[in-house]
């Protein structure tokens, strides 16, 4: 895509991405800290090799580092019976803001199904209050400070009570 996508929904503010995006944590940090995402969506068709090695780890990391829910629907099984016979990993997952797996579809490479879970927006708030990583980010060291919300079409999260003097912003 050409821009970050965040939309309001009954389940909270959704940050919408695709599977390969999950390898770029800065995307999810901007969706969270600039656009106010609470639930990060990552539909996927991960290959078997990378799915087995990286799928669950990357999803859990995105949940922990953004303190958002991560929801990853996953295509499973054989895509075609001729040609490259590509297979997708499957294994749809959802994580809460603490990184706990709250939904898992152990469909293997050929299955399908539905799994349900609840999004507790208060859990996001409690997690962020108990560990305010958004206020502890060190832009003075690694740059790329909070982005002007008006430039990206969203609202930046407040930096709580953090001392921002001398950090290149605020």
UniProtKB/TrEMBL annotation:
InterPro entries, A to Z: C-N_Hydrolase, C-N_Hydrolase_sf
PROSITE patterns (alphabetical): CN_HYDROLASE
SUPFAM superfamilies listed in its UniProt record: Carbon-nitrogen hydrolase
Gene3D superfamilies per record: Carbon-nitrogen hydrolase
Domain of life: Eukaryota
Pfam families: CN_hydrolase
Limits of the CN hydrolase domain: 1-121
Name recorded for this polypeptide: CN hydrolase domain-containing protein
Originating organism: Calcidiscus leptoporus
């Amino acid at each position: 895509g050409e821009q970050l996508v965040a939309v309001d929904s009954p389940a909270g503010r959704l940050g919408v991405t695709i599977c390969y995006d999950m390898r770029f944590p800065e995307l999810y940090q901007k969706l969270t800290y600039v656009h106010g995402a609470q639930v990060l969506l990552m539909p996927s068709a991960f290959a078997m090799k990378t799915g087995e090695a990286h799928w669950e780890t990357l999803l859990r990391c995105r949940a922990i580092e953004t303190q958002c829910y991560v929801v990853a629907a996953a295509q499973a099984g054989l895509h075609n019976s001729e040609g490259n016979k590509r297979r997708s990993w499957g294994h749809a997952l959802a994580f809460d803001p603490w990184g706990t797996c709250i939904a898992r579809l152990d469909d293997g490479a050929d299955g399908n199904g539905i799994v349900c879970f609840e999004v507790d927006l208060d859990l996001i708030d409690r997690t962020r209050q108990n560990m305010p990583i958004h206020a502890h980010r060190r832009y003075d060291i690694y740059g790329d400070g909070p982005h002007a919300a008006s430039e990206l079409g969203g609202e930046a999260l407040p930096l709580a009570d953090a001392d921002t003097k001398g950090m290149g912003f605020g």
